[in-house]
Amino acid sequence: LARFAREADFDCFLLASCYTLLVQSALAELFPLCIEKRIGIICGAPYNSGILATGAQEGARFSYKPASPEIMERVRKIESVCTTHGVPLKAAALQFPLAHPAVVSVIPGSRSEAELNDNIQMMAFPIPAAFWSELKGRNLLPCEVPVPVGDKT
Prior knowledge:
- By secondary structure, the chain is an alpha/beta fold.
- It has helices at 2-7, 30-37, 51-54, 69-85, 89-95, 113-124, 129-137, and strands spanning 12-16, 40-44, 61-62, 65-66, 103-107.
- The strands form two sheets. A three-stranded parallel β-sheet has the order 1-2-5, covered by helices on one side.
- The longest helix has 17 residues, at 69-85.
């Protein structure tokens, strides 16, 4: 997508699984180009194929295949911070991408009305600023990554 952003004019890109709590590969090159050229990013697959919705449980999937032991361990660490702050993992996964100024929307996908309603609730869930600070402090997110403002508690 960075090549497309450099070589042509676009209104937006759909970027799947590349800007999530686990993966920020778009941060260094693509996002600055998109900001410069006013290209909006629609983040798809914010749950990274499921693991950021289910957590690090048996059979969890990451990037459309079984999650590796390393990914499972990283998710467990994120879940620990979630537990400390009373934040559902799904809420953090949905709200995180929207803090970046290049991101205009997040589309998690829903297979049922119940999933849709859950996604709506997770988007509205209040997440304290201390949660994002702890993720950065524990090196679970890069220090330079933008995070939601939080509720200042």
